[in-house]
Description:
Blueprint: H1 11-20, H2 28-38, E1 42-45, H3 53-58, E2 63-67, H4 70-81, H5 85-88, E3 91-95, E4 107-112, H6 123-135, E5 137-148, E6 162-171, E7 174-186, E8 191-202, E9 205-217, H7 221-230, E10 233-239, E11 253-260, E12 280-281
Parallel strand pairs: 1-2, 1-4, 2-3, 4-5
Antiparallel strand pairs: 3-12, 5-11, 6-7, 7-8, 8-9, 10-11
Amino acid sequence: MKAGVEPYKITSQHYDAAYAAKQDLVDLPFYLDLARKSGGPVLEIACGTGRVLLQVAREGIPITGVDNSRPMLRVLKAHVQTEPRDVQRKITLHEGDMRSFRLRKKYPLVIIPFRPMQHMYTLKDQLQALTTAAFHLHKNGTLAFDVFYPKFKSMDEGIGQEVLDLEWPRDSDSVVRRYFRKDSLDKIKQVFSFTFIFRTYAAGKLVREESEPFQLSYYTYPHLQALFLLAGLEPVAEYGTFAKEPLDNSAQQMIFLLKKAKSPRTRRGSLRTPVPSVRRKR
């Protein structure tokens, strides 16, 4: 997606409330620990509404956030305005595409939390995103990101069915329910399409319905290892959970810490195209 487009136009209105209600979202302590250990500054690629970014800034760590979704950035900027001045001063925001933006700064820690890499649908997109992250690393900096561990047995089950995914109160008189509908699966391109449906109920009656389509790519472990080689990156740690359990057949996530490779065995960024610098937003 290009910078300045309107992905997450509907979802951005519900994003914070929805994920506050998600009980199994346990990645925040993992990324906060990395931020503390790095000492900052931190670059968060695809920062969204600031679920991770704001917590890092509240720790007193400078953080730069980049996202291509104007609706998500609008929500984040509204959040930033409610923070104390000392927290606001730790935050810099940019509008930009994770495949192509370039800042005039290097970082000891670059993070891509909560699966934005799964919005990269082609090998070219995936390599460009990782090359962008590598470009912004200090010589000894660390890149951290996560994607889900693919469950092939159930991947093509339930296509066309609506499933109640999350529920949260909108106010004292109404509740929002998010439904998930898997629409299609492309096993060749490793992409599945789905729709989030948001239904608002008041006094038990449906009063509003909104929907937004999405796609997610999925990765295999060898696929990621090949991308790391092409992007001039090498893993220094890998985990199957945010509790740092092994990446094995019982894994729930695929979580990687990477550094720039000392002796790249292939030409870095071979699919990369030249890009302009991103426009700065505060």
